[in-house]
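Posting for a labmate who doesn't have an account.
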Amino acid sequence: MVQPIDVQQLQQRYESGDRDFSNVDLAEADLSGVNLSNAVFAGANLEGASLRNATLINTDFSSTDLSGADLAGADLTGANLSNAMLGGTILEGALLDRADLSNADLEVANLIQATLTQADLNQAILSGANLEAADLSEADLANAELEQANLTDAALENANLSGADLKDTTLKGTMLEGDDPSLAT
């Protein structure tokens, strides 16, 4: 069951050493610029929240609803976003290096210039997502759904695209070095 909490309570609990915010309700909350590294938000509701430029290193957002949230410029290095709902989320310029986005729903998400090196996007839904100029070097996109995604000028060096659905995907200027050469046609 999701428990309501306000931003002030969250910050007080975090500053006192509490890191477990599983199942909290922070829909539409303004958490811009906060540092919530190593916190656990598993199963939480952060729909429409602003986490713009937040520091969220190694934070657990597994099975969290972040639909329509603004995470532009956020540092999500090593974060767990597996099974998270990120449809329509703004992740422009976000750092997602080594993040776990396996089975995440990123449909029509904005990932322009996001850094996703070595990220796990296995079976992620990226249909209609904008990954223009994103860095997906060494990312695992096995069995990912990239139908109608925009990968213009994206870097996919040594990325795993086995079984990925690239139907109607825009790949103009995409760097595919180290991948299956048949994908570059």
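Reply:
Got it, the structure tokens are right above this. The CA atoms of residues 58 and 182 lie 36 Å apart.
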